[in-house]
Specification:
Layout: H1 8-31, H2 36-62, E1 67-68, H3 70-83, H4 88-100, H5 116-120, H6 146-153, H7 155-174, H8 177-200, H9 221-226, H10 233-238, H11 254-264, E2 268-269, H12 276-295, H13 301-334, H14 338-342, H15 345-370
Antiparallel strand pairs: 1-2
Length: about 375
Amino acid sequence: MSKPKIIWLNVTVFLVTFLIAAIAVPYRAITHGFEAAEIIMAIACFCYCGMSITAGYHRLWSHKTYEAHAIVRFIYAIGGAFALQNSALHWSSDHRIHHKHVDNNDVDPYSAKRGFWYSHIGWMLREYQAHRYNDYDNVRDLKRDPIVMWQHKHYLTLVLLTNIGIPLVFGLWYGDVLSSLLLIGFLRLVLSHHTTFFINSLAHIWGKQTYTDKNTARDNGVLALFTFGEGYHNFHHLFENDYRNGIRWWQFDPTKWMIKLFSYVGLADKLRKSPEDKIEKAKLAMALKTTQQRLTSHPQAEEMLKKLEHEYEVLLAKINEFYALKKQILLNKKQQLVCEVENSELMKQFFELKANLAEQRKNWQLLTTKFA
């Protein structure tokens, strides 16, 4: 069977930019050196491109996890062109198909089950799914966004203005055009590309399946450091409508923090979060499954499995009871019964349940660790 036609433009762009970044940039660093201002500007542009993809292309346009002011959307559109990862319309269309058909080699544009190379970059080097390149039926909502359509229409112009114009203007201002083109142009672009591509490849083979094993996505805190929080990919694939990827305060997710900051100053609203109880139950069910699998070959497997399943049922019951009560308290507060609620038996019951649940979580953690 013949392979799909090679997309020579993509091959040329990826190859040439990578060779210049890998050879010319180190050579220039050794023979001439780079100034601190040039390095800082390159890092700033890298962050701008990355956050435009994660907060804009991904969490705003692909998943509609929040709504953003037109100014913010415009900034994302420019940054997305600077990142050179196709228009927001096309990127979002690909990504929605990926989520809907994840790991399906025949439909998923960058299925991880076709191997690291394919999911990382190979899928863009040949016309694997040419029949749908101009089919945007799954992003009809984005067609109503004038900024998305403006960027899509003028994408090539914006790419040239940002990828050549920004490094050139900075180089002319600072007095070193060549260094600026190499650092802010080529090296920044290659880093922007491959850190994003790692989410399609590495984040599907390296890390933990914390919440589900129904797809190949993994949670990886190391990848989160280089991808502005996108490394918590197992969570994302199960709770794709959540504006957060790292849901704990200590998890590195600057995209989440920026979106939250925008909401404080009126530049973003309607931030969507997955219910806490659903997140906890998914994590609990996955922990039960992995522990059960580890115990199958143990000499006392039957006894241990019974104890494990009993603790699971007890903890699940307490979680249901706790969150049901919590919802009732929130409802009462919304009905402006704050004073009455705080002094009611409901609050006493809530704090008792909270303490009991914490103790039960601790017991569960000790049990699953013991059986590890």
